[in-house]
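User: Please fill in residues for this 112-position structure.
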């Protein structure tokens, strides 16, 4: 297991969550240029690496992109995924099984 991996993953997750809430869906490129990075030119894999994410952070992001889009982290732009998550209320909201979360009331054993 990667030393400090969980804390590193939480740092990357929290950064992504903050950034996605700052994206202006009407003009995403303009709004993210203010962050000083071209998120459309980088993949989610690049995002993790550029932000100092390690193996655990990359594994977590791999789960996000596979489960939510059916894509690998290197196959989706960071800007697209930021926009996608912003539209769904944030990565935490979309991955949550709490009330109003993206996974709330999913089918269990074929029944509600």
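Assistant: Residues filled in for all 112 positions:
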């Amino acid at each position: 297991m990667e030393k400090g991996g969980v804390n590193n993953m939480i740092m990357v997750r929290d950064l992504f969550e903050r950034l996605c809430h700052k994206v202006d869906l009407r003009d995403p490129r303009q709004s993210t240029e203010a962050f000083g990075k071209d998120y459309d030119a980088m993949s989610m894999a690049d995002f993790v690496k550029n932000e100092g994410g390690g193996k655990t952070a990359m594994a977590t992001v791999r789960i996000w992109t596979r489960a939510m889009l059916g894509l690998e982290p290197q196959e989706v732009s960071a800007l697209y995924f930021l926009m996608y998550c912003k539209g769904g209320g944030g990565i935490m909201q979309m991955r949550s099984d709490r009330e109003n979360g993206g996974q709330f009331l999913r089918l269990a054993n074929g029944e509600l």
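For context: The radius of gyration is 14 Å.
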